[in-house]
């Protein structure tokens, strides 16, 4: 264990997700098999709907975090696979429910399940996945892991409710927004990371380190997603750009642009996000304001802060391929925006 | 109200506390008078002890924040003076109690009151000041302000208790440490700022903006204090350097240096902070490790993140001398470390 240098050095520009993919490849193959098995049901609609979203090309970063955390703690059992699959199911369940709550029409460039099959179907398949997630956790038999993941499930729901309050509220402060994503996004990353050391029987301080890693990579990840939704730092109109804008979502780039803008700018944001005046022309103007106020670049800067915290959290662990993969994933989460 | 540019531009290197001092000068004169009046008591020991610390050269930043916030919201009454004095009393009370809890021997370069008069006297004079603070708040008659300040009093105590858990625990994570100072230091700054808009009758979003300003300048301020306790970014042994180290306090610079260090480094930190091996030679080695791991420079970077949040929080308010003073105070809180 040598001296670990901070973010700037340890995450060269080429930071990639590949080392984590490689370190967890064996486990992820089993996770993917479990996912297919556990989406099976006599009710044929369920596998059809569930797999529509599950197979739509997510990176499966969360289950990789669980497997990587377990490996980095020297775990050699098989419980990590089911916990990782549970985490992915919990994530997918929230996507189903989110799309209904947000009345979203597209997700990852595809029509949302609620448009293809209906809102009720989406809600119920989400519930089915949550139920399956809990069954798998129970099978693993770790009460501590069950405690952490079920607390996360409640926190995520709280975060979604909090977001109902901030959505379309252009006066949202940065703290309020960070609280929302801490609950809505970071809580699951945090739990995904913490169950690794839990089943490995690691001590309190190692659990705290992974909890911190998960929380902070989760916040960084969400902030970069917010930037990508406007096309990245060098924002331009393009495919999949502007979903948040069209849904009236007040994300951190908007919080900053709104607060830093002129009265006229603020009237524009209210008109667009609150009253729903979101034409392509309006989106173009929004992107111009985001650039002028440096809101996108500074959101990336804010994300870097959380990324640095995630990196420092894991520093004391012994070196391993899994740890290196988890650390590079932090750099990767930021690099996506540039 | 023009476009407000982010931190780098709005806080030139010369950021100073002077604009806030000037904007609040008239009110602070009254605050200082109230402080003298309300430390009076038939029990002559009380004014003697209370004034020993109150007159020991603090900047009185917190009451200036209250006055500045009220002014920035257009307040023209006189309730802000008593609330500002309450805030300073609450702050002084916690210093008395802290010195007893931490068994500190010096504060602001002077012997602590507990050494001059005793521990029991320090605790009780702290309680007296807290009582006087609440009486003044009640006199102002704003239940909302009373609610915010009394909640802060409870949170500060919670933060102190949390700190008992992190003190001498070198495994403390950055998140855990930030939670401690969010409660111990930032909660009072947050309340100090929020009571301004409250008595000015400002709306919810303005209150949220000041709460956010206070919380984040409070965190930034504490992190820079932590750096200054090791002599600043270009750390050197000097007067008033190393108090935290000698008391075994695990502050953010130590959290980072510990996590980034080698096994040998970590053994040194445990030996020094947990077992109390804190000679001048040990302090010199500690400073060398803090520099080698860039822990001090990166703590300043972390502080900048919170400073940027504080600045953005106030951006939408109409321009005024008070607002400008509050914003420059953010830059000042950071500049102290360089």
UniProtKB/TrEMBL annotation, chains A, B:
This is Polyprenyl synthetase family protein. GO terms for molecular function: metal ion binding; prenyltransferase activity. Signal peptide: none annotated. The lineage of its organism: Bacteria, Pseudomonadati, Pseudomonadota, Alphaproteobacteria, Hyphomicrobiales. Belongs to the FPP/GGPP synthase family. GO terms for biological process: isoprenoid biosynthetic process. Keywords: Magnesium, Metal-binding, Transferase. Its cofactor is Mg(2+). PANTHER family: ALL TRANS-POLYPRENYL-DIPHOSPHATE SYNTHASE PDSS1, GERANYLGERANYL PYROPHOSPHATE SYNTHASE. It comes from Propylenella binzhouense. The keyword Calcium does not apply.
């Amino acid at each position: 264990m040598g001296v670990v240098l901070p973010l700037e050095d340890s995450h060269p520009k080429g930071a990639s997700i590949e080392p984590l993919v490689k370190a967890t490849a064996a486990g992820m193959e089993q996770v993917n098999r479990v996912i297919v098995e556990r989406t099976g049901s006599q009710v044929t609609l369920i596998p059809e709907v569930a797999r529509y979203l599950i197979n739509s090309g997510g990176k499966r970063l969360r289950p990789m975090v669980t497997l990587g955390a377990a490996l980095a703690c020297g775990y050699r059992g098989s419980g990590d696979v089911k916990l990782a699959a549970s985490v992915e199911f919990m994530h997918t369940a929230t996507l189903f429910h989110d799309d209904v709550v947000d009345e979203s029409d597209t997700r990852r460039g595809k029509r949302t399940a609620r448009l293809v099959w209906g809102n009720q179907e989406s809600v119920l398949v989400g519930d089915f996945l949550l139920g399956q997630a809990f069954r798998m956790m129970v099978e693993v038999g770790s009460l501590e892991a069950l405690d952490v993941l079920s607390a996360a499930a409640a926190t995520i729901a709280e975060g979604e409710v909090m977001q109902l309050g901030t959505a379309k509220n252009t006066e949202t402060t940065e703290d309020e927004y960070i609280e929302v994503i801490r609950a809505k996004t970071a809580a699951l990353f945090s739990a995904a990371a913490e169950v690794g050391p839990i089943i490995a029987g690691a001590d309190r301080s190692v659990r705290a380190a992974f909890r911190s890693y998960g929380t902070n990579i989760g916040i960084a990840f969400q902030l970069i997603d917010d930037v990508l939704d406007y096309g990245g730092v060098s924002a331009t109109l393009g495919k999949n750009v502007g979903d948040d804008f069209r849904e009236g979502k007040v994300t951190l780039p908007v919080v900053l642009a709104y607060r830093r803008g002129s009265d006229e700018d603020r009237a524009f944001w209210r008109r667009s996000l609150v009253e729903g005046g979101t034409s392509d022309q309006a989106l173009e103007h929004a992107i111009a304001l985001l650039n002028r106020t440096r809101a996108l670049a500074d959101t990336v800067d804010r994300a870097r802060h959380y990324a640095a915290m995630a990196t420092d959290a894991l520093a004391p662990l012994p070196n391993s391929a899994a740890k290196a993969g988890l650390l590079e994933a932090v750099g990767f989460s930021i690099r996506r925006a540039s």
